[in-house]
Recover the amino acids of this structure.
């Protein structure tokens, strides 16, 4: 077997050195009845070529985003990632290194983490960011749990503009921890009255901007009300590129900012692995979940970096930890930070502008179609259409058959909300061409006719 | 050469990406436009390349040498898997595409699920958890949901003292009181201690097997039976499943739920901290509570269930949703690639080699280092304690840091907590005999050196790494967690 | 521009420091009439995404070998290359390093070269091998030039079994150096009488085995006759995998062995870059072309490697050099040696056997078809079919339209030889499946019917 | 840690590749089967990974830092180009596929050809030469063939003393007598000297421009005219074309043939020695002699000519064939990717930046190091000689080796031959201002150190590299060019 360096002769020599007759002597503690003697009911080893063929056949049954006019968002976005990013994260020294518990020989990982934390803090206009979570949805859930710890209250107010899956994950995670919820109805137009829901029992209020429906939300009044009541404002975003153009939650008064970072550096890969971003105020750092990298000096007085404040973490604190997270999104975080470094402020703002332009153009073409209503007044690169009275999911399927990926039918991921059957969330990014947009508009017109 | 931070060399007006920004449109941002600059320095592509290449050169990695981190399973990461994960048909597929356009992706998840069920002997699998700890949470939630369905609300979870820190953290997160089971003298759990602690308030036991001392819990069936009798569930921490694949099936040992660290057992690169994946296999009793989305196996067919409504049609009652989408597809691809490559024969051989290698190290060091539970066979990792360093003036930490100067990554230290000054070594199946011999010889030399009183070699170590020993206390006392632009120097100083 | 680190401000500062007013002052030596003032008539810079799209469109117009039943050889072969190979050669330290003129900081490249030279010497059963040539055809031409230098004679005898393109390259290179040739007619069956052409005027005799037509040639009698006449035997191969199974030219008495190494580690890439292999006897090393790596010690007495015998090379010897070759096939050679190390003797022999098996099976299926004659008595992974009286090139084109790559029609690459219009050279490798072979046989039968 | 040779750690029975060998067939090898073992050690995949990763870590590379090798043009290598070259539609295409199945490949060659013609202002291009030196050979063969077509057989080629070694080697290979043109005091070629040497036996002049002293031959037109008047051809060594892309076109300077090192000017990674690519652009006069295969441009259309017969139909008379197939397709892809990325504006900017950077280094060091031709503007590289080291006891070589300890690859030394102890520095356009400043500061420190008499820092250098200075003389005296298995130790010794 190509991955196993021991030869049969090696194995025999080693058994002799250990002083036993058979490898099974080492497995003697397994209850006899449970020992497997027959081979498992699975195929035998395959050559690299065979494996490649097997998996390529499966891959060929999927339609890659690059191969069609593509307008699906809803929490994961198709962007162009520079080739340099994937080259660098594949370097053995990054790829096959462990969590940097031995800082003397993992300064590479650690310095990149420190730079990442700074980028996220600056991006969100918050004081501190952690070294990444699994993804945006779990980061949001961790934020709610953190608010619970900070406020010692257990009622979360959830905006109707929050991604339905994020809502579900928050609920799942904290329901079992005995939190309660005040969940507002789906809010495609950003018109909900969330202020009235915030009271002195509330631990946090969770608001997404741009919302799941693409609306840009003014967080300032919410922050004001929240702070009056001793409530934490958790601001969520699923499209990090939007931060290149819109006002960050940090300057609007958010206490915790969480979001999905997949857009930078990371491919779609059917939903994972992604990278959760998590930033907060200085005063809450000891309540933060996840890993943190900090600056220090070595025995020679040289600057260096280490994982720090691990007294919050499960491997030290065990049942008193701030979260059970252990493995995180290291490599995805590295891809993110490399992409961000390549962009810099200038490139990042240009990328954001190119995305917004693509969405404005697309919206302009689609809102003119009979039977289509654009619900957004403002948006970044994603907006919601009402396909008056039609089943959005059926229309998406029809368009997919025509080779166009039209967007996310709200009903598919939010089966419980009312009056959303004809809603379609459409995303545009810098990868869309004029031809893509024209093809979409023409096809939609045809299907709705 | 020292590598500065990007904030020190980068400039806000430099970019390493060319983007065409259309000008022929009217923004629709309302009043939400950002005003203040972000302060994100950029690097041109050549500068960025060098920055990260140089940073990487300050890291140790499996591809450079033995990485004997017990419990972390640092094994070879085949590049075939990386190549497969990058096929456009996988990497460039959106989680919310119409299902008709992702049939192969769904089929891959189903195929991997089947491999996991066959290797573990369990009934069902929840694929979506994003890492081992997330899988633990998922498994324990299934247990909590099952208890709730039975109308019960138990308050305690039993956890042995040798457990990974994630176990008590997970239990606590779900509101359970953690009750510690003491280890018996040989490092394993005594069924009698378990029985003593069991009552109708115990929801579950969380047991790692093979345990973190590198030992197979030989009374596991007895423990499982006792737990089940008490109406509780048996959660198995599958972090060490890699020792027994093809040798035993957790399902036949009485396990009700077990997460599998795909990245450990089936070799996703650790990437400096992740990502991993933690699918959870479930027994018949827990299967109906698996979170959405999941794959439902019915004989030869596999159905992808996305919502609770669909689940209900099959009589399932999912406890909720663990993550926004379908889980760690990238890791699924790598794991299936790894499993197909090995096959049933190769997976078993890999377990055997992992165990053989660990025992070979034990035998090679038993006379010089101290084995807390005696010189008896272990599984895929071997646990030493620090009594061999007694009176040498060298601590476990010093010893580990001295290994760095010899070109090795240290082993896991101070874990498990059940022994004093633990040194936990896991070589994995990826090491050759020559590599093991060199490692043993190096450790023997270090031990002799410590015993001879050459303390300086240890207390000042490492000497030959990119950084000398770092001051972790200072870092924690006054945390500096991001770079802050220094105050501009005064005009006089600049001139 | 993403690849240029200087900003406009940097440029201005630097001009000031240099003490000139404009960048054009630095180009003042260009005759004024020849200075370009207008932009060149070419498109302006493109984003990475645009370049990727442009080139992907071109790539999409080609049919990749992996996507169809594939049986084309004739000097380049489709094999499976382990993913590890491409990963390793893409490491920055290998990929972006120069020729190892500073051995203290290029031991990686040098040790890999030393190992490569040893592999090639062992493989061919020769004393020494160089550090690679451009490809097999230019290596063959260099061998003829070397024989000229060694023997001080200038007539080369060229077998009719030599690859027609190799024949052309040898002729082109040495004709202009005033060599003369005795070229035997195309020899599909290995029946030529080459011994009678060798005389005391001859510098070398060039024989390929397996021949272009796939025949295995007994080199021993040729070596004997050559050595009687003071002539060098140059043995050529185009499929290095054959050496896993057939007797090497070294043990048969060859003086120079040259060949194409593309089969190991290197993709087809429409003909290049490939890697030329070159081995000879110890006594001729100072007449060898190309780079050589040798073992030595450093100032501390530690083993190390350096480029050596550069007194044969153009950068030192100038007009007295053994060849003008400078840049060689470094990275392709590295890919070769990594693939070979992964294989080892065991894997290499298995690979050779798998190739031979594929060819034997295919030949068995094709030779039964009406109108097809198999000309080879022996072969390794390639053989020649006579499609009695048919135009092989037309048949290949027809089969290509049916999605089958049937082989090399001899006439296409050897337009000058007689009676080759109906000859087809067919190659089989380990990548062919039973389905591929069945599809080929069925299609050929249909086309010939 | 020292890395052994694969022959020392590998074993003939170990393999890192799994291959299924069918058994159901009868070999048809006749009597040609190999009998003796090959003696090729194998490594499992994890062992091979480590071996080559560790070897790589002993290398310096552009991706790690400034690589100021004059005349070699070590610039940034965009990874986009690597990605493009690996598209299956390019990498997985056979050179002898029916042309209907490789239309995009042929089109790519044609597009690149057009870019080369526009940037050089020439009439035609031969794409197949496999490297710069191979291109030289091709160009000179075209000249020889053109002379032959005129019924002439001239015997001499003029080459300036500053020329690359490949120039005289190429001329000699074609049977020409090499006549050296002395340099005038300012490092350039004097048209008068050329005129003096020209006669009806001169086939061509081979001139590098910008020349290897980093200077543009300002009398190039006059020289070209003189050469043409004498019935000879002007071969231009295009190794330094990267300095003038977008600033001047060789075709307008009287050049008849010029090779282009795609890997230098348009950035293929140097790969530790290659591969490169050396397409040759030709003037109208030489175009008909281009070797097969080639692309024939006729207005907007481009036709791919594979054989002499096809060429004849267009009235061309190719002199032969340079290589088995179509040339270095892999490099063509990278070069076109590089050119498309830059565009006409970026290519010009790159030339300007390369020249600007080189002049910035000159100015930064002019007061401390010695400029053989005075402190005047140079092109993309700047040439120093060793007179600044006079009486320091430090040689050019010592100085270069001391740079290694400072983290830099040395510049080109002892070339061009036209000055004593040459030090030729080419920074390329890929360096940032900060990088140049650090480099200048480091060199200044080294020069001061040498002048202060700190000779040990130089004569023993390098101290901090994977190897100290290597004994090249010993290597050449008794060459060891392959590993030979040591005699087995005697039985007593083994026991």
């Amino acid at each position: 077997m190509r991955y196993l360096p021991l030869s049969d002769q090696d194995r025999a020599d080693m058994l002799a050195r250990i002083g036993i007759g058979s490898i099974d002597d080492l497995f003697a503690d397994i209850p006899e009845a449970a020992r497997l003697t027959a081979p498992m009911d699975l195929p035998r080893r395959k050559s690299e070529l065979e494996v490649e063929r097997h998996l390529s056949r499966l891959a060929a049954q999927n339609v890659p985003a690059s191969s069609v006019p593509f307008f699906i968002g809803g929490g994961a976005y198709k962007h162009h990632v520079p080739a340099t990013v994937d080259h660098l994260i594949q370097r053995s020294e990054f790829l096959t290194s462990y969590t940097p518990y031995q800082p003397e020989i993992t300064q590479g990982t650690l310095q990149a983490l420190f730079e990442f934390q700074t980028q996220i803090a600056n991006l969100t206009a918050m004081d501190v960011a952690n070294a990444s979570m699994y993804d945006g949805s779990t980061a949001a859930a961790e934020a709610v749990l953190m608010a619970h710890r900070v406020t010692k209250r257990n009622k979360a107010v959830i905006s109707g503009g929050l991604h339905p899956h994020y809502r579900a994950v928050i609920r799942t995670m904290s329901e079992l921890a005995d939190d309660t919820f005040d969940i507002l109805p789906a809010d495609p137009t950003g018109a909900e009255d969330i202020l009235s829901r915030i009271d002195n029992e509330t631990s946090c209020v969770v608001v997404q901007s741009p919302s799941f429906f693409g609306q840009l939300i003014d967080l300032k009044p919410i922050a004001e009300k929240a702070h009056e009541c001793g409530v934490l404002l958790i601001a969520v975003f699923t499209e990090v590129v939007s931060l290149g153009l819109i006002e960050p939650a940090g300057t609007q008064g958010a206490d915790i900012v969480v979001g999905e970072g997949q857009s930078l550096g990371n491919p779609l890969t059917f939903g994972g692995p992604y990278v959760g971003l998590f930033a907060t105020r200085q005063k809450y750092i000891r309540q933060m979940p996840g890993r943190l990298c900090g600056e220090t000096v070595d025995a020679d007085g040289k600057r260096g970096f280490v994982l720090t404040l691990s007294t919050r973490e499960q491997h030290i604190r065990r049942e008193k930890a701030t979260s059970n997270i252990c493995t995180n999104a290291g490599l995805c975080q590295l891809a993110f930070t490399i992409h961000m470094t390549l962009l810099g402020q200038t490139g990042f703002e240009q990328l954001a502008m190119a995305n917004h332009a693509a969405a404005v153009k697309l919206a302009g073409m689609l809102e003119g179609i009979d039977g289509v209503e654009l619900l957004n007044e403002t948006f970044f690169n994603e907006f919601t259409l009402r396909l008056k009275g039609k089943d959005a999911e059926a229309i998406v399927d029809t368009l997919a058959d025509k080779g166009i990926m039209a967007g996310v039918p709200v009903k598919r991921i939010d089966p419980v909300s009312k009056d959303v059957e004809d809603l379609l969330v459409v995303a545009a990014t810098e990868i869309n061409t004029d031809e893509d947009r024209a093809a979409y508009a023409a096809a939609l017109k045809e299907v709705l006719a | 050469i020292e590598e500065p931070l990007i904030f020190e060399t980068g400039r806000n007006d430099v970019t390493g990406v060319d983007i065409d920004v259309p000008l022929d449109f009217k923004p629709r941002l309302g009043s939400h436009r950002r005003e203040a600059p972000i302060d994100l320095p950029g690097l041109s592509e050549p500068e960025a390349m060098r920055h990260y290449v140089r940073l990487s050169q300050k890291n140790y990695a499996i591809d450079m040498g033995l990485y004997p981190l017990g419990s972390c399973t640092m094994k070879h990461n085949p590049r075939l898997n990386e190549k497969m994960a990058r096929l456009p048909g996988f990497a460039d597929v959106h989680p919310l595409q119409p299902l008709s356009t992702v049939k192969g992706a769904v089929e891959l998840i189903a195929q991997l699920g089947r491999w996991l069920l066959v290797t573990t002997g369990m009934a069902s699998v929840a694929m979506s958890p994003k890492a081992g700890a997330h899988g633990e949470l998922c498994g324990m939630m299934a247990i909590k949901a099952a208890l709730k369905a039975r109308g019960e609300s138990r308050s305690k979870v039993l956890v042995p003292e040798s457990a990974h820190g994630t176990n008590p953290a997970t239990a606590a997160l779900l509101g359970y009181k953690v009750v510690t089971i003491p280890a018996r003298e040989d490092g394993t759990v005594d069924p009698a201690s378990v029985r003593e602690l069991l009552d109708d308030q115990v929801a579950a036991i969380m047991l790692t097997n093979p345990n973190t001392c590198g030992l197979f819990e030989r009374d596991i069936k007895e423990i499982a039976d006792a737990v089940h009798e008490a109406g509780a569930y048996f959660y198995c921490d599958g972090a060490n499943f890699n020792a027994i694949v093809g040798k035993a099936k957790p399902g036949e040992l009485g396990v009700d739920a077990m997460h599998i660290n795909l990245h450990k057992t089936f070799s996703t690169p650790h990437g400096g901290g992740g990502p991993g994946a933690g699918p959870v296999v479930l027994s018949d009793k827990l299967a109906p509570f698996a979170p959405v989305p999941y794959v439902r196996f019915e004989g030869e067919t596999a159905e992808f269930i996305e919502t609770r409504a669909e689940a209900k049609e099959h009589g399932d009652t999912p406890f909720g949703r663990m993550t926004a989408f379908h889980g760690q597809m990238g890791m699924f691809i790598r794991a299936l690639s790894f499993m197909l490559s090995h096959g049933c024969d190769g997976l078993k051989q890999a377990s055997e080699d992992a165990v053989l290698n660990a025992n070979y190290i034990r035998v090679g060091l038993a006379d010089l280092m101290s084995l807390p539970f005696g010189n008896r066979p272990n599984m895929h990792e071997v646990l030493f304690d620090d009594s061999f360093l007694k009176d040498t003036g060298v601590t476990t930490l010093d010893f580990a840091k001295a290994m760095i100067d010899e070109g090795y990554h240290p082993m896991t230290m101070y874990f498990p907590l059940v022994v004093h000054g633990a040194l936990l070594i896991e070589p994995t199946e990826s090491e050759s005999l020559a590599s093991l011999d060199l490692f043993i010889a190096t450790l023997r030399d270090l031990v002799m050196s410590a015993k001879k009183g050459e303390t300086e070699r240890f207390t000042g170590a490492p000497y030959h790494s990119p950084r000398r020993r770092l001051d972790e206390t200072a870092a924690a006392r006054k945390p500096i967690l991001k770079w802050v632009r220094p105050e501009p120097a005064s005009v006089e100083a600049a001139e």
In short: Residues 330-366 of chain C form the longest helix (37 residues). The domain at 69-80+344-448 of chain C is CATH 3.90.1150.10 (Aspartate Aminotransferase, domain 1). DSSP finds 13 helices and 13 strands in chain C.
